[in-house]
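User: Hey, my collaborator sent me this sequence without any context and asked if I could get a structure. I don't really work with proteins. Can you help?
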Amino acid sequence: MNQEVYQFFTNDHHRIEQILEKAIIHLDAIDMELYNDFRIHLLTHIKMEEKIFFPAALQANNGVPLPLAAKLRLDHGALTSLVVVPPNAEIIKVIQYILEKHDLLEEAPGGMYDVCGQLTKDQTTILLEKLKSTTLVPVHPCNTHTSVLGAAKRSVARAGFDYDEIVRS
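Assistant: No problem. I've predicted the 3D structure and written it out in C-alpha cell form, which is a compact way to encode the shape of the chain:
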C-alpha cells in the first residue's frame, strides 16, 4: 500500500465528513454555509480522484481499466447529483449511506486506494503535489426545481442504490 497517498485521501474523507456533521447538527435547520463548504470539498475530492489519481493508475496499468473504477464513477455521479438538491434529513441520510459504502470500496485493503497506490508508487511525490494543488470546485446554490430530485434518484439507482429503501431504513 502507498501509505502517503492512502493517508492523503482517507484524511480528506474524514475532513469532509466532519464538515457535513457540523452542518447537520440540527437537521431541521441545516447550516447552509457549512453545507456548501461540504459540497465544495466533496466535489473537489471527487475531482482529485477522477482527474488525477484514477487516470494516473489507469496509465500505469497500461490503459487496462481497474475493476472498481466504473462502480466508483457511478457513486461519484450519485453523490454529485445529490448535492445539487436542497438538503433535508432524507437527502442527508442517502448521502451518508452512499459515502459510507463508497469510502469502504476505496479505503479497504485491496480497495481502490490500495490498487491505485501500488500502480503509481513511483509517482507518489508528483501525485501528492498535484492533489494538494487541486483548485476548489465552485458550486451554485442548490437547485429547487421539482425535476432535480427525480434526476438524483435515477443517478443513485444507476450506482446500485435504492434511494427509497435507504430512506426507510
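In plain terms: The mean pLDDT is 96. You can pass these C-alpha cells on to your collaborator as they are.
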